[in-house]
Amino acid sequence: MRATVWEHFSFTKLNDVKGEYKANYKYCNNTQHKVNSRYGTSNAKRHINNYAAYKTFLTKNPSHVTNFDHRVFVYMFAEAIMNNSYPCSMFEHVKLREMLSYLNAQVRHVTRNTILRYRWQEYLRLKSILHETLSHINNRVCFTCDCWFACTTKGFLTLTNCILNLCYFPSPHRGVDIYLFVVGIINKWSLERKAFSITFDNTGAMDVMVARLK
Q1: Handedness of CA 121, 124, 128, 129 (dihedral sign)
Q2: Which of 2, 30, 37, 39 is most solvent-facing, going by the fewest CB within 10 Å?
Q3: Domain boundary among 40, 65, 90
Q4: Average pLDDT of the residues of the chain
């Protein structure tokens, strides 16, 4: 119930378990809307648009009738977080929320999970574009591959042309396992017929991997 439209309703709780309420329009007191987080705002908006009192409110509060698009706002904020390596919890900081509300009363504050969802959708979009680009190139592709341990002692492996994959890779880092992993990624990106070279470090496991890859 964070949408701006709910500012014009009062609420009566119906069901604690389901989180359901009845919304009473402040200007008429004769219509009730059943509300919970699953329901949209379309019925409430249609209802209040019929009242002169609401139109008067919009006249006195022009910020409520701007072309502000909440989805675009969250997308741009999520993009800024990613480009500057800010923590996703930044959107939950109290003072930042106060500032955003001051700048535009239509801002609806979201959680870090919403930011992560937006970033995941963007990741899938960019991945699709990269896959399409690689599928249309006629030249050969050079790869690099590396395994390393993070400060948490967990192992990771990445295969790059652009970054094609970066994931947790548990020990032991045996050559056979690395080979199966890398070949799986190359096949997933449909690059098995376009591979030209691949660069590794000089560990023994990589020698085994290269022998199998050849």
Answers
A1: positive
A2: 30
A3: 65
A4: 77
Q: pLDDT (tens digit, 9 = 90+) per residue, 18-37?
A: 667 777 767 666 556 666 65
Q: What is the mean pLDDT of residues 119-123?
A: 87
Tokens coding 211: 């022998």
φ and ψ at residue 109, rounded to 5 degrees:
-75, 140
Q: Quick one: pLDDT at residue 3?
A: 61
- For residues 69 and 51, the answer to whether their CB atoms sit within 8 Å is no
Residue 54 confidence (pLDDT)? 67
DSSP one-letter code for 29: S
Q: Please state whether beta strands 32-35 and 20-25 pair in parallel, antiparallel, or not at all (unpaired).
A: antiparallel
Q: Give the predicted TM-score (pTM) of the model.
A: 0.53
* Residue 1: predicted pLDDT: 43
Domain assignment of residue 201, given as a range: 139-213
Residues 100, 107: contact at Cβ < 8 Å?
Answer: yes
Total tally of structural domains belonging to the chain: 3
End-to-end CA distance of the chain: 59
Q: Is 77 exposed, middle or buried (0-12, 13-18, 19+ CB in 10 A)?
A: buried
- Whether the per-residue pLDDT at 96 is higher than 80: the answer is yes
Long-range contacts of 104-110 (CB under 8 A, 24+ apart): 104/63, 104/66, 104/68, 105/4, 105/61, 105/63, 105/64, 106/4, 106/63, 106/64, 106/66, 106/68, 106/70, 107/68, 107/70, 107/73, 108/2, 108/3, 108/4, 108/70, 109/2, 110/74
Are both 59 and 87 inside the same structural domain? no
